[in-house]
Amino acid sequence: MGREMAAMQAASASSDAILKVVGVSKYFGGVRAVADVSIDVPKGSVFSVIGPNGAGKTSLVNMISGFYTPDTGSIEFQGRSIGGLRPNERAELGIARTFQNIALFRGLSVLENLMLGRHVRMHSNVLTSFLYWGPAQKEEIEHRKKCEEIIDFLKLNDLRKQTTGALPYGFQKRVELGRALAVEPDLLLLDEPMAGMNQEEKEDMARYVLDVNEELGTTIILIEHDMGVVMDISDRIAVLDQGTKISEGTPAEVQADPAVINAYLGTSD
């Protein structure tokens, strides 16, 4: 199915939204980061949030993931209000994210970083590992198998034992994507996954983002400054400017919106 057809279906499927953000606002002192923003993210879509620097994109993602608490408004995930839930509790429900700045454990291997990403799916702790060595070992083997599947999916096979701090930047970003996938999310929040990459690395990451969406069936919210990438892989796009949503629609609709042109270029002529 083409991206345009998927976008048309997404536009008509707001009742099938996996995430509903209604009128959220966030202030830091007297500074408005986000003001009365609402979005419905259709299940199975790639939904991008774009805007100039300081538009409130990361603040919005931080509210969805639980790092910030909205001052007003509500957020529902799969029909359930997630207001008041901590980030780890939202991860347990199926929300994972990557960060604008790489947040890996640089001294650990690729596999170890992915295993840490599995912690919300693990039930054994240090005590049960001593008391129930068999079940704890079985659980670790199962989680390791899942991580190996992700390593294979992201083509990191030859790097599984290398420390992440020694990897090239593009591979580190791929490992961070893998750690988020280790949560087995239904909703994946990607905060500028291609920032700092060269063109070849961007093309690789864009392909993996589409593979995650299409092959794994994961809904994606993407923040990205590369408009070429955004227009190519998004089903729907919301545009923020100075904390306010000024446009939403298909890539073609957003690209032609005078309000969007004005926000980026300073003129709609």
From TrEMBL:
The keyword Cytoplasm does not apply. InterPro entries: AAA+_ATPase (IPR003593), ABC_AA/LPS_Transport (IPR051120), ABC_transporter-like_ATP-bd (IPR003439), BCA_ABC_TP_C (IPR032823), P-loop_NTPase (IPR027417). The keyword Disulfide bond does not apply. Keywords: ATP-binding, Nucleotide-binding, Transport. Residues 19-267 form the ABC transporter domain. One of its GO terms (cellular component) is plasma membrane. GO terms for molecular function: ATP binding; ATP hydrolysis activity. This is ABC transporter ATP-binding protein.
